[in-house]
Amino acid sequence: MSVQTSRRPHSPAPGSSGRVPPVIPTQPGPGGRGPGGGGKKKRTKRKDPLWAKLTLALGAILMVTSGVAIVGSKAVIGQATSNIAQRNLLGDAGKTDAEGGASLEGPIDMLLLGVDARARWAADDVRSDSIIILHIPASHDQAYLISIPRDTEAHIPASEKAGWKGGTDKINAAFQVGARNGGGWEGGAQMMARTIKGMTGISFDGAAIINFGGFKNVIDAIGTVRICVTEEVSSLHMSMVDGKPMWNADAKKTGKTMRPVTYKKGCQEMEGWQALDYSRQRKTLRNGDYDRQQNQQQLIKAMAKKASQNGTLSNPLKLNALIKAAGKAFVLDTGGTSIDDFIFTMKGVTGNDLVTLRTNGGTFNGNGNNREALNQLSMDMFQAVKDDKLAEFVVNNPSVLSTRK
């Protein structure tokens, strides 16, 4: 049976790649979707050569890397499939047949969620404070990251299982609502996907949940990452005790002198714990959650670049360590498509092709009740994602580009 190609927008016309010209800011489960999970045709299994480029999505399925020859890449991807937990994270927010279904021939949209649940797995009291939409245009040669502010007011749809009648709240509460009464992380992601679809109209091809506690090991597997700190900030979460970093709660128990972890302004190599801690700071930053969003996007991009530069993907030992770390840090949904098909579809995207975008001009847009609303430009940007016209939109509206390099 042939691969579906007609249910999504076609690739750009010849001569138009759909890529954003280089723009440098001047300043610093498987299982079907929808009722019954049916209605999708099976995709043809492609026979990719062993030397095919590997795109391993980390950082919430996004450690996009390529250009590295891998020996036995199919076996490597098979191992990744077995190590990374796969769940139905989208429910009825996955793309329908009319939107492309399981076909990866058109644009690809993924929902990336970050949760902080160091000691628990199926917690029912966790909110997702990191909400990112990953968009890959039909040309499959570029990727965009758009963060949704945690305090955005949104309508969270009703859920009988969760005992929720529906209503408005901060969008980060959607995950917690879906996780209630045994819904767990799977239910939380499904509710978040439904909420975002209702707000933006975007349906998804896949989703990933990142456990911040396990993310540190993913960074450590590739060594350090280069992060540029735009303003000095002291950590609200960690302190140094006898020269060693510790969570503040643990540090207090020692009864010893605590020295706040401080990140000085400037570009620097960070270890896993430093990069993760820095990317979680919010309250002491000038623009609060917006600065944190950009720092998290910067971290994902830095990881993508590092993995393609240090030989991780061509060194079996390094690659095995990376895959094992990913298995502990991520829960993944590729929408019924096999992971190897999903990865090879994105083989043309590199870390340098990752464009980070921001909503509301990077500043809080209050709506009068301690929440915020997405401005019209931000809503137009999400419409461009849905229409697969984001490259054109960014060229015409360069203010949406993140100031982080």
TrEMBL record:
Residues 1-47 are annotated as: Disordered. The chain crosses the membrane at residues 50-72. Gene3D superfamilies: LCP protein. InterPro entries: LytR/CpsA/Psr_CW_biosynth, LytR_CpsA_psr. Residues 127-308 form the Cell envelope-related transcriptional attenuator domain. Keywords: Membrane, Transmembrane, Transmembrane helix. Pfam families: LytR_cpsA_psr. NCBIfam families: lytR_cpsA_psr (TIGR00350). Belongs to the LytR/CpsA/Psr (LCP) family. PANTHER family: POLYISOPRENYL-TEICHOIC ACID--PEPTIDOGLYCAN TEICHOIC ACID TRANSFERASE TAGU. This is Transcriptional attenuator, LytR family. It comes from Micromonospora humi.
